[in-house]
Write a structure and sequence with these properties.
- 4 copies of one chain form a homotetramer.
- Chain A is α/β, with parallel strands linked by helices.
- Chain A has a single domain, classed as HybD-like (Rossmann fold, 3-Layer(aba) Sandwich).
- Helices cover 39% and strands 19% of the residues of chain A.
- Chain A is globular and about 70 Å long.
- The relative contact order of chain A is 0.17.
- Chains A and B meet through helix 11, helix 12, strand 9 and helix 13 of A and helix 11, helix 12, strand 9 and helix 13 of B.
- Chains A, B, C, D: It is an enzyme of class 3 (hydrolase).
- Chains A, B, C, D: Its EC number is 3.4.24.78.
- Chains A, B, C, D: It catalyses: Endopeptidase action with P4 Glu or Asp, P1 preferably Glu > Asp, P1' hydrophobic and P2' Ala.
C-alpha cells in the first residue's frame, strides 16, 4: 500500500475518488483535470488526466494518467467474465505503453520487469506477490527460444521484493538494484490499495503512468518506483483491498446529518471533522484493518485476473480467449 | 462466531462487556450477577456468574459462569509469557470442570471431545481449527497404552467440523452425530468471538460453562452445543478476533459527544442510536470485517496458547513448564 | 490414503494396476474380472468389474466396479481441457449411481453427502479436503429454495473429517455419526491414493462403488465407509498422489534384469523379492514419501476438476460448459 | 537447492557425505582434507576443511570450511532443545565470521544481508524464505536507534529473491543488484539441500564459507553467491530436505549385494552402476521428489531454529536463553 505522504493525506489511493472529493469540496469541475468515461458491458472505465502541478495539488495526485476499471464482476465467481475483464484490463494497460519508444531501435525487443509489492503473509496486502505468482515469465528462456516463438512472447521477468518490515531494505532500493542489473525497458508495479469508499473494495482496478511510493514512511526522503528514480517508464496498477476506518465513521456521520437533517459538523478551529475523528479513533483503531469478508478468496481471484491482463497486454500470443491457459 | 440471536443483539460475545454495558445503562450493579476480580502478574481475571433468568435477560447472556482472562501479553511475542498464560488458562478451565461428576464411577476415566469451531480458510475465523491442529489427542492410543502412561494422560479427541456454508450441515448436528458415537463425558468448544471494544481483540480469553450456538442463523430453530442438546457438560472458550463496525461508529459518536460536550443522541422513535447507525451502515459495511493488523500471526500465536492451556488442564503429565513440548 | 490391509498388500489403490499385476503374474486374463476400455479424445477410460470373491482374491480388490480415467491433461494447465475432464468424470460417476433406487419413492429427492478424506496440512494427502472446499453445497438452502430452483440442484452436503492422528477418532466413526443425523441417500468419498507406477501420479482418476477404508491400521477391526457399514451406497473416488518407494526399487531391479539380461531375482525362501526389498528399505525409507514435483499445484488443479465433476454429476443445472461458474 | 554442476555430480550438497564417499572409494583418508569431530550432548559437530584444489577435486567440493551439525533433535518437537540447537548453530556460524575484518575500521559496524533461497510455494524448497520470515531484521531502524540499543544489535537485512522459474532472473543477479545498493559487509545465504542418505533429512545442518550456486543450470555460465562474484564474504547454510531417488535404488542394491552375498555390480563399460540406474529411472522418476513424511512441519520447526541461530550469532543482545523472544 502506498505511503501516507502529501499525496494521499486524503486517504485514498484512487484518483477517481480524489477527484470526486475535490469536486464535492469545490462544487465544480477541477481545471487541469480531464475526465473521460466509457461504459462497457462488463465494466465502467474512467480515464483521468492530471494535466499540471496546479491540478495535481487540488486532487493530491501527481500529474499523469489514471485509468479506473470498475466492475462488480470482479467480486463474482465467473471465470468467463474474469477472462473478459483480463481483456479489458490488457487494452487499458496497452493504452499507457508506447512500445516503440521503449527501445532505441525498433528491432530491439523490450524487457519488462513486473514488481509485486506487498506482503505474502498478510492477506489484504498479498495482491502484488500473488499476481507475480500467476504471471507468465519468459526472460530466462527468451534468448534461447526459436525466433518464431519469440515473435509471440515478450521478455518478461518479475520480482516480489517483500516489505520494509521484513527486509530492512527500502523496497525501491531493492528494485533499483535489480533494475541496474536487468536493465528492463519498462516496469509494471502491482500493489494493494486503500480506498475511501467500501463499495470500491475488490471492485475497482486502477492503472496509472505516474509510478508509486511503496510502504509506509519512516521519516527520511526515499526513492520511489517512478520514471525519475528508475530511469525507465513505470506503470502502476492496483486494487483497493482495505478502507480507512476514519472514512467509515466520517461517512456515517455525514449520512446521519443528511438523513436526520441535523448539523453534525464536527470541524474545530484548525481541524477538519475528519481530523477530529482521527484523533478520537487513533488510540483504539490505529491498528485495525477494515477489509471485505472473504478477502482471502477475493485476492485469489483478482490476482489471476490481473496476471491474465498483464499476460494479454505483453505477449502477442496470449489472447483473451486463451488467457487461462497461460496462468501459472 | 456465535449467531446473532436474542443473546447477542448487543453485539458482543463477551459477558464482561455485556455486564459493563448493563451497568452503564442502569447506572448500578446488576442484581443476580456476581462479579469477582483477581489481578495476577500477567493477567487480570474476572469471574462473572449469572445467577438467574432475570439477570440473564438484563445482560443478554444465559445463566452460568463466565471467566475472562485479560492480558496484553497475548499480543506480544514472548514464548515464556505465553507458556505462563497457558498455565493460567488451564487453572481457570479446571475451575469449571467437575471431574468426578463426569463419569458414573470414579475408576472410569472420562473422554473429552474438543471442538474447533470456525473456518480454516478465513483468517479471523480460524482460531478453533488451529487450536485443534495443535492439540494433543490421545483417544486412539489411550486404550492400548500402558496403565502407567494412562495415568499421565486423559482420553482426548478433537474435531474441526467446518462451517454451515461449507458443509451444508448445521455444525451442532455434526457434533451431535459424533457425540452419539464417541460418547464423550465432556465437550470443550473453541470459537473466534466478536467483541464490542477494539482493545479486547486478541487480548482477552473467555471461558464459560453455558455452551455456544455456532454460526449465523438461517431461520429455523436449531440445536446448540449445550448440555441440554448434547447430553454432557460443555465448556465454551474463545477469543475476540473481530469487532462490529457499528460499534466503532457508535463509540466514536459517543466519544465526540463527550469531548465536544454536545448532544449527538441519534435515537429515534423506537430505534436506539445503534440501530440508526446500523441502518445507515448496512448497505455499504454489511460485508466488511474489522480485525487487528497482523491477525494472521495473532491467530497463530494464540491458538498455541489455547491448545497449551487445554493440554495442561486435561493431561496430568502436561505442566506449565513442559507445555511447549506437547504442542503438535 | 487407504489402509494397508489384505486388499492392498500389493501396494496399489488402483484396480487397473492390480489387474495388470495379476495378468503379468498369471500370464493371462483373470476369470471373473471383466475389462472394458474406451478411448476418448482427452482420456482413456477403463471399466473393470470384479465379479466374484474368487476374482476378488486374485486381484486383491473387493468385488464391484472400478472405473479409471487416464489423461495426461490432468497435469497440464489448460482450463478448457480441465472443464472437459470434469464432464468426462461426471458421466462416469453417474454411470455408478442409480438415482431412482436412492429413495423409496421417486418424488422424494435424494440427499448426497460428500466426504473429503485426508489431511489439510499434508500436501499430498489434501486432495479430499480441497475437493470439499471447492464443492457446491446446497443442503442448507435446499428446503427453503423455490421449487423451480430446486429442480436444477440436488441436496448436497459435505464434510472433511480429518485423520485419525489429528482427531483421535476413527474417520469412519465420525462419518457414521453424521450419517445417522443427516440420513443421506448416497455417500461420495474422495481420497488421495497410492499408486505402483510413477506415471500414474496426478494423471489417473479412479471411481468405484466398493467403498473405502480410510487411514492406516491400528490393530483392531474397524468400520469402513462401505454400504454395509454406512447403510447407503458409497461411491469412492481418488487420484494417486504418492508411490511406494518399495515399488520404485523393485521396478528398477526388474528393468535392470531385463535390460542387462541377468537374473536378479531376489526372492528368498518364503519372501518375495518385494518383501526382501521392503525389509532392507524400511529402516531408512519407512518415513519417506515419493511424490511428483509441483505436487502443491497438481493438488490445487485436480481438486477443482474433481469438484467440478461432482457438481456436474449431481446438479442438473451444472453443465460442462458452465462448470467453473459453480466452483467455490 | 544447488545446481547440478561439476561439484555435485555425486548428488549430495553435504561435504560430510562427499568426504565419506571419497573415503569409501579410495579406502583411506583423503589428503588435503582435514576433519575434526566434536560430540556435544545434543549434537555431533564435524568440521571439514578442504585445503587445496587437489583435495577439492577428490571430494567434489570447493576449497574452504564445511561445518556439519547433526542432531536427531532437529526432528523432534522440543522447544527447549531447539533453543539449545540455535545456540550451537550460532557458535559455529561465528566460528566462520571474522567480524573485525568485515569493515575497514573497527568503529564502523558491519551490515549483514541474509538471503533466503528457494521457493515459498514448494514445501521442501521453502526453508530459505521461511528463515527470512522469522528473522530479526534491523537495518531500517538501526541508524535511528539510540547508540545504547545499537550496541545490542547489528544491522541486518534480508531478502527472499524467489527462484529462476518464477522470476525469469538468475537469483545471483538479483542478489548482486541488491548488494550493489545496500553494500553489506557479509552475506549469509540459506537454502534447502539435497542429501544422499535419507537419515540426513531434517537432521543435519551444514555451514560453509565457500558460497553457493542457486538453482538448476540453464546452460550458460552464471554468477554465484560467492565472495568472488559478490565482493564480500559469503556464509552458506542449509539443511537437506530431499534425497535423490537414484541414491535410494543404488543404496538398496548395494545393501542387497551385501546381505545376500551376491555380486550385483551393474557398472557397464563407461557407466558406473549409478549411471546405469539413473538412465533407467529417469523416464519415470525424473520428476519425483523423495521427502520425509511431515515435511511441512519439519520445515516450519527447523526454519525457526536456523533463524534463531542467526539471530544469536549476529545480535549481541540475543542469547540462547531468550532466542524465542526475538523470533518473528
Amino acid at each position: 500500500m502506498t505511503e501516507n505522504n502529501e499525496f494521499n493525506s486524503i486517504m485514498t489511493d484512487l484518483a477517481v475518488e480524489a477527484r470526486d472529493m475535490a469536486v464535492e469540496r469545490t462544487g465544480g469541475e477541477i481545471s487541469g483535470v480531464s475526465v473521460e468515461e466509457e461504459d462497457k458491458e462488463i465494466a465502467k472505465i474512467t480515464r483521468i488526466e492530471v494535466l499540471n502541478q496546479a491540478a495535481s495539488k487540488k486532487i493530491s495526485k501527481p500529474p499523469g494518467n489514471y485509468i479506473t476499471i470498475e466492475s462488480e464482476s470482479l467480486r463474482q465467481t465467473n471465470p468467463q467474465i474474469h477472462q473478459e475483464l483480463s481483456g479489458v484490463l490488457a487494452a487499458e494497460i496497452n493504452n499507457l505503453i508506447d512500445y516503440p519508444a521503449l527501445t532505441q531501435n525498433p528491432t530491439q525487443m523490450p524487457t519488462i520487469l513486473v514488481i509485486g509489492l506487498g506482503n505474502w503473509n498478510a492477506t489484504p496486502d498479498a495482491l502484488g506477490p500473488q499476481v507475480v505468482h500467476h504471471l507468465l515469465v519468459t526472460r530466462h528462456i527468451y534468448n534461447s527460444a526459436e525466433p518464431e516463438s519469440r515473435r509471440g512472447i515478450r521478455s518478461v521477468c518479475a520480482l516480489a521484493p517483500g516489505v520494509l518490515g521484513l527486509t530492512g531494505i527500502e523496497t525501491a532500493e531493492i528494485i533499483k538494484g535489480v533494475v541496474d542489473r536487468v536493465k528492463p525497458n519498462l516496469i509494471i508495479a502491482i500493489d494493494a490499495l486503500a480506498a475511501r469508499e467500501s463499495e470500491r473494495l475488490a471492485s475497482t482496478l486502477q492503472i496509472s503512468d505516474t509510478g508509486i511510493y511503496p510502504g509506509s514512511g519512516v521519516g527520511k526522503r526515499r526513492i520511489g518506483i517512478t520514471k525519475k528514480d528508475m530511469g525507465v517508464p513505470v506503470i502502476a496498477m492496483g486494487m483497493p483491498t482495505v478502507i480507512n476506518s476514519v472514512n467509515i465513521v466520517n461517512d456515517t456521520i455525514e449520512a446521519i446529518s443528511q438523513n436526520h437533517n441535523i448539523n453534525l459538523n464536527l470541524s474545530q478551529k484548525k481541524q477538519t471533522q475528519k481530523q477530529v475523528i482521527e484523533n478520537i479513533l487513533q488510540p483504539f483503531l490505529g491498528d485495525m484493518i477494515v477489509a471485505p469478508k472473504g478477502i482471502d478468496k477475493l485476492i485469489r481471484d483478482t490476482s489471476r485476473i490481473v496476471a491474465g491482463g498483464i499476460n494479454i497486454a505483453l505477449h502477442p500470443d496470449v489472447e483473451t480467449e486463451n488467457v487461462s491457459f497461460y496462468l501459472q
